[in-house]
Amino acid sequence: MAISAILEVLISKLRPYLELDINEVIFNEPYKFYLVRGSSYELLENKAFDEKFLMNFCEQLATHRNLFFNHNFPHLACSIPFTRYRVNALHPSVTANNSISICIRVPSNFKFKINAFVLGQKCQEKGIDYAFILNLVRLGKNILVSGGTASGKTSFVNSLIEEIPITQRVITVEDSPELHLKNPNQVNVVVGKNEDSNFTYENALNSAMRMSPERVLLGEIDTRNTALFLRLSNTGHSGMISTLHANSVVEAFNAIGMNVKMNAGKDIDTSTLLDFFIAGMDFIIQIVKKGNERIIEDVLDVKKELRLALNRE
C-alpha cells in the first residue's frame, strides 16, 4: 500500500532527526522533543511540531495501517511504512496534561555478532560457549530468548538467525519488523498491535502455516500470541526463535503462564502448561544488561533443567 502524499510530507519533517545516530525520539508535548542516545536525553525544539502536526501524523499513520487514533482508540502502536521505526502514541484524552505523547524507536543499523554478548558465569560453569549456542540454531532447536527491557534481546536474536541455513524458506510474523534475515526465500508478515486490527496473530500464523515454511519466527511473545506460540511449538515445527520480557528463566515460564491466563478463554493449570511448554520448547536463553555490558546469563535446557529450576524457586 502506497503512502499518502500527506503522510509522506509529515514523515519527511521527522526524517532528519530519525536518521541521526539515536535510539529514540520522544514527544511529551507539542514543539519540544527529546533525542535519546543510550541513557542521555537531548531536549530540542521545533515550531513545526505543533499539536496539529503531531495529531495529524498519528491519525494519518493509523489510517495507513487500517487502525484508528481517537478518543475511542487512544493507543497507537505500529511502524512507519517501509521502515523499522516503531511508533507508540497516546491520545491526549488519556494523558494527565491533555497532550499527545509519541515515542518513535529508531533501531540501530549496527549488527551485533554473538560475541558482543559476554558469556555469564552460569554458561561458563555449564561449559557453554558461542559455538554451542549457534549450533542450536543450525540444529533447528526451538529457542526462547528472555530478557528485560533494553537488554538486547532483538539484537541477540538477529545474531542467531545468521546461522539459519541460507537455503531454508523462512516466514517471520511480527508486529514491528525487527528481524533481518539473509535468506532469499523469506516472507515477512506484519500484524497490527491494536486489538481492533483486522489481521490478527491467529490470521497471520494460520496463513504462515499454509505457505510451506521450513521455519517460522514469531517475533515477540505477548498476551495475544502466547497460546498460538505454544500450539505452534507443539505441532512439529522446529527452528522457532522468539523473544519474551522476563528477568530470569523461571520468570520466563511464569510470564508464559500469565500471558495464557490473561488471554480470555485460555485458562490452564500450571502442571498442564509446564508439560505443554517442555514438550514444545528446547532452550531458554536469558539475556541481561549490567552497565554497558550485555550478558548471556544462562542457557537453560528446557527438557532437562526447567523442572529443577522451578523447584528451586
Characterize the structure shown.
The mean pLDDT is 92. The longest helix is centred in the first third of the chain and has 14 residues, at 5-18. This protein is 33% helix and 24% strand. Helix 1 packs across helix 2 and helix 7 packs across helix 9. The protein starts with a helix and ends with a helix. The chain has two domains: 5-105, Beta-Lactamase (2-Layer Sandwich); 114-312, Rossmann fold (3-Layer(aba) Sandwich), CATH 3.40.50. Strands 3-2-1-6-5-4 form a six-stranded antiparallel sheet, with helices on one face. The chain has a five-stranded mixed sheet with strand order 7-14-13-8-12, sandwiched between helices. A three-stranded parallel sheet has the order 10-9-11, covered by helices on one side. With 313 residues, the chain is α/β, with parallel strands linked by helices. Strand 2 (32-37) and strand 3 form a beta hairpin. The radius of gyration is 20 Å and the shape is globular.
| Radius of gyration using CA atoms only | 20 Å
- The H/E string reads HEEEHEEEEHHEHEEHEHEHHEEH
Which CATH C-level class of the largest domain is it?
Answer: Alpha Beta
Determine the CATH superfamily of the largest domain: P-loop containing nucleotide triphosphate hydrolases
